[in-house]
Specification:
The protein has about 150 residues and is mainly beta. The protein has one domain: Sandwich (Jelly Rolls), CATH 2.60.120. The chain has one helix and twelve strands, in the order E-H-E-E-E-E-E-E-E-E-E-E-E. The strands form three sheets. Strands 1-10-5-12-3-2 form a six-stranded antiparallel beta sheet, covered by helices on one side. The longest helix is centred in the N-terminal third of the chain and has 12 residues.
Length: about 150
């Protein structure tokens, strides 16, 4: 897992051309103007999911993990907590679904708070529980960029 400000995105360009392309998409677009839904950046290799929702209580969510894609979760507006822990420390609630590239897990982890202009990058071993309220439920505008491994 990596947590940082989008201003430092160039530090991670060395992780691969697809990661660089994903960060360049964030930096060269006014993300607040993007419509909700899926935006193809490089076909199925890189795409963005633009989301607007209200944060929720931690017990309302499960941890998730992916095998085919790295998640770059970028906060356009608002603040939320995201749970994180190595997937091996959790119990499987729903077996891996290859079509949806998701496995649901349960257990305990730590939390990172992300606010406008910050991102968290999750790799396949990183289980994560996004969309959690900080103090009160609040609306957020977030973009999740999926980068194929």
């Amino acid at each position: 897992m990596i947590y940082d400000s989008i201003e430092n995105a160039r530090l991670y360009f060395g992780l691969g051309e697809r990661i660089k392309t994903a960060f360049e998409f964030i930096k060269t677009n006014d993300c607040s103007l993007l419509k909700e839904g899926k935006i193809e950046i490089d076909g199925n290799n890189i795409f963005a999911l633009v989301q607007k929702y209200d944060t929720k209580d931690p017990e309302e969510a499960k941890f998730e993990a992916h095998q085919k894609y790295i998640d770059i979760q970028y906060m356009v507006a608002g603040t939320e907590n995201i749970g994180f822990v190595l997937a091996d420390y959790l119990d499987v609630v729903e077996d891996y679904n290859e079509e949806k590239d998701v496995e649901l897990l349960d257990g305990d982890g730590d939390f990172v708070q992300i606010s406008e202009g910050e991102f968290v990058m999750f790799f396949p071993d990183d289980a994560h529980k996004p969309g959690i309220k900080v103090e009160e439920n609040e609306p957020v505008h977030k973009m999740v960029i999926k980068v194929k491994i």
